[in-house]
Design goal:
The protein folds into two domains: about 15-215 and about 340-390, Crotonobetainyl-coa:carnitine coa-transferase, domain 1 (Rossmann fold), CATH 3.40.50.10540; about 245-320, no CATH class. The protein contains 16 helices and eleven strands. The chain has helices at about 25-35, 65-70, 85-95, 105-110, 115-120, 145-155, 160-165, 175-200, 210-215, 235-240, 260-270, 280-285, 285-300, 305-315, 335-340, 380-390, and strands spanning about 15, 35-40, 75, 100, 125-130, 200-205, 245, 250-255, 320, 340-345, 350-355. The strands form three sheets. A six-stranded parallel beta sheet has the order 3-2-1-4-5-6, with helices on both faces. Strand 10 (about 340-345) and strand 11 (about 350-355) form a beta hairpin.
């Protein structure tokens, strides 16, 4: 498929992408969405995520997770364990602005592409390393995956605060990888700004444990923010078991009354008059009043349809939104109106896929899906020819 001309704010920036799994590919897809020319270097067998799990993929190298985090990239196969492959990569680096990888230090050094070696090829290179743990700590150099980082950061202890089950469990998303991928995007862009101002490239380290722990505990240190401690862990309104969608006549809704008066108004519109002076509320004490309050909210929500509540809440300025099940997301009127889910053709005529369009909007430099997720090595000849023409 022909590449559309990039109009994004990073148009003209070339990124050599040596990442695999989730963190790195999610970061480089975001950079590609922003307009960068991302050259995805794959070993002859391809990115390990291509094969995925199960039998849902229309081709063996196009697993669903790979498809959703590898658009706006060109795939080039290079065998970096062979002299020819390493020579090809060195030539490509001469044309690059950024090199990003998530290999362990010993592995990248064995291949000859540690920072000092790459800097010798391209002195102003922005060299970004996404790693599990900061290199100056005792975990430096260890392998890291999402579950490991969720465990070490304390994230696995959050669901027990929410539902009372003491078993430690990860948040059901590859959330550490994706969060740290966004930190890698931020770091890459910041280093490019520095280079634009000074002409200097630099080594950039994005350690998962440190960046994700800062992200996930920003609200959950809570009383332990202070020394000595002045309270408990866990942000109270975040970990309450009452924090969940409420059933309506035909679906679910999330409401967030921003004042006691707003909550009172919602409950009264649901047919419960003067809720804070009702017998069940006044008879309750302490936590019992919280339970009574949420019980009245839920009873009120069940009296109308989701659409009715959305209209009413908009009229009286009570923040509210429908709660979609996963099989309802595609029919959400906002997503349909904005064309967020876009059906596109996979390369090689193997079928269609559902892309989620970049959410960022730039007036002068719009983002776009220019390239669909590539087949293994789809752009090898094209990219190598470009490199040769620049020599």
């Amino acid at each position: 498929m022909t590449q559309e001309k990039s109009t994004g704010p990073l148009a003209g920036i070339r990124i050599v992408d040596l990442t695999q799994f989730v963190l790195g590919p999610y970061a480089t897809q975001t950079l590609g969405d922003l307009g960068a020319d991302v050259i995805k270097i794959e070993e002859p067998g391809g990115d390990r995520n291509r094969k995925g799990t199960g039998k849902t993929a229309p081709a063996p190298d196009m697993a669903a997770l790979f498809v959703e985090i590898n658009r706006n990239k060109r795939s080039v196969v290079m065998d970096l364990k062979a002299d020819e492959g390493r020579a090809q990569l060195r030539k490509l680096i001469e044309t690059a602005d950024v090199l990003i990888h998530n290999m362990r230090p010993a592995s990248i050094q064995r291949l000859g592409f540690d920072y000092e070696s790459v800097k010798a090829i391209k002195p102003d290179i922005v060299y970004v390393v996404a790693m599990g743990f900061g290199s100056d700590g005792p975990y430096g150099g260890l392998q890291a995956f999402d579950d490991l980082i969720q465990g070490a950061s304390g994230a696995c202890d959050l669901l027990p605060y929410y539902d009372g089950d003491p078993a430690l469990r990860p948040i059901p998303s590859i959330v550490a990888d994706k969060t740290c991928g966004l930190f890698a995007v931020i770091a890459t862009q910041a280093a490019l700004v520095h280079r634009a101002r000074t002409g200097e490239g630099q080594y950039v380290e994005v350690p998962m444990l440190e960046t994700f722990t800062g992200f996930i505990l920003a609200e959950h240190l809570n009383g332990h923010t202070y020394v000595p401690s002045r309270g408990k862990y866990g942000h109270p309104t975040t970990i309450t078991p009452h924090r969940r969608p409420m059933k309506t006549k035909d679906g679910f809704i999330v409401i967030l009354p921003n004042s006691q008066d707003s909550a009172k108004r919602f409950i009264e519109m649901g047919g419960i008059p003067d809720p804070y002076n009702s017998p069940r509320y006044l008879a309750a004490e302490g936590k019992g009043r919280v339970d009574a309050y949420y019980a009245m909210l839920n009873e009120a929500a069940a009296t109308r349809t989701t659409e009715e509540w959305l209209r009413i809440c908009a009229e009286v300025s009570i923040p509210a939104m429908r709660a979609n099940r996963l099989d309802e997301v595609f029919e959400d009127p906002h997503f349909k109106a904005t064309g967020f889910f876009e059906e596109r053709e996979l390369p090689g005529g193997i079928g269609r896929y559902r892309a989620m369009k970049p959410g960022l909007r730039f007036e002068k430099t719009p983002c776009a899906i220019r390239l669909d997720p590539p087949r293994t090595g789809q752009h090898t000849e094209e990219v190598l020819a470009e490199v040769a023409s620049r020599a």
